[in-house]
């Protein structure tokens, strides 16, 4: 593919995403985990940065995954782990979503959302997550257990486990986002 010949599908010529910061090289455990999580969050934003609605809805067949779907999915994942599991709170739009009709509702419904709505949903979920983690760390650190217990085992999950899982979740989906973004407008790299 001749990447120079592909016109980017952008909302504005300016970047919408602040620069990424590398995780600390010598931080404590919490600083390191949060540094990697923030790095991966910003990587996702770089992959959706400036794209219009059509570009966020574009698939790379045979997959039906889209960049907009990934953004909404990761907003849901943020709220699931840090609000639902950690705090045992239900939030909208997830609490009333038709999960029994569409198990992948957050992925499929993103096609009806504007880029601004998707970004606002993700931004709000991340801001809630950051406040939750900050309060949890101040109250006792990474060994604390979530309020909500696992369905099958009855065990509580530690904050450490949730942070590691969130890094894994973003890293996995950033690989998908790399391929999707390249298929949209040829943009590659970090």
UniProtKB/TrEMBL annotation:
<dbReference type="InterPro" id="IPR034660">
    <property type="entry name" value="DinB/YfiT-like"/>
</dbReference>
<protein>
    <submittedName>
        <fullName>DinB family protein</fullName>
    </submittedName>
</protein>
<dbReference type="Pfam" id="PF04978">
    <property type="entry name" value="MST"/>
</dbReference>
<dbReference type="InterPro" id="IPR007061">
    <property type="entry name" value="MST-like"/>
</dbReference>
<feature type="region of interest" description="Disordered">
    <location>
        <begin position="1"/>
        <end position="27"/>
    </location>
</feature>
């Amino acid at each position: 593919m001749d990447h120079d010949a592909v016109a980017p599908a952008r909302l504005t010529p300016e970047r919408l995403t602040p620069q990424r910061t590398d995780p600390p090289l010598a931080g404590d455990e919490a600083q390191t985990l949060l540094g990697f999580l923030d790095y991966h969050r910003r990587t996702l934003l770089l992959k959706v940065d400036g794209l219009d609605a059509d570009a966020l809805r574009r698939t790379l067949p045979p997959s039906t995954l889209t960049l907009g779907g990934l953004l909404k999915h990761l907003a849901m994942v943020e709220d699931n782990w840090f609000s639902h599991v950690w705090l045992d709170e239900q939030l909208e739009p997830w609490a009333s979503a038709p999960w029994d009709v569409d198990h992948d509702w957050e992925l499929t419904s993103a096609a009806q959302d504007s880029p601004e709505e998707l970004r606002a949903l993700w931004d709000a979920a991340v801001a809630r997550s950051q406040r939750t983690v900050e309060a949890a760390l101040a109250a006792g650190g990474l060994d604390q257990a979530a309020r909500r217990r696992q369905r099958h085992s009855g065990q509580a999950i530690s904050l450490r486990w949730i942070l590691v899982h969130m890094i894994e979740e973003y890293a996995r989906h950033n690989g998908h986002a790399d391929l999707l973004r390249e298929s949209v407008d040829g943009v590659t790299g970090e």
